[in-house]
Write a structure and sequence with these properties.
- By secondary structure, the protein is mainly beta.
- It has one domain.
- Strands 1, 3, 6, 15, 16 and 17 form a six-stranded antiparallel sheet that branches.
Length: about 200
Amino acid sequence: MYGLFAILASAFTAVNAQGFAGSEATLNMPWQSCSGKGRCSSTAGKVTMDANWRWLHIQGKNDGTGNCYKANNWLNCKSDADCKSQCVLEGLSSNDYQKNYGVRANNGNLTLAFVTETQNGNEKNVNVGSRLYMLDTAGQKYQLFTLDDKEFSFDVDFSNNFRCGLNAALYFVAMDANGGGRPRYGTGYCDGQCPRDLKFIQGQV
């Protein structure tokens, strides 16, 4: 069985927007594969943010006035075809991960904040949760894992303000290595909530 490793601090996501804007700076996330005690090799993996948490805006309008989606509503586009052709998924800089999403990576450790507030002029932006995917060493495809006769382990620190009722998990999901489009932009995820929570499914609004 093959699986993709996802790191979750929320409960919904998106699939394959049609257009992409800006460059993407993935975060370094090394991991180890072991064949026995003391017999481990390191892989210089990376992580990227799920598409659903990224800014979706009208192509060319990156000043904050061209939002395509906010508060569960489509904006600035009048039809499915219009939204599909005009809206682009924005890439993230290394600073965006921490500033806008509360995500930090350091020497194989990931820190995820559940609520992150930022100020954009007079407007306050609140981000809730995040979902990250592991990429291969080149950062061009999702990292696939063979799980037969193997185990995976990780340490989690819940000592710092982790409240009751939150879902924080590391898990495997079935996804194409190419993410159905642009894995560096976190595309291609789908689960039982697809018809309700996704902005795009297979590129369709």
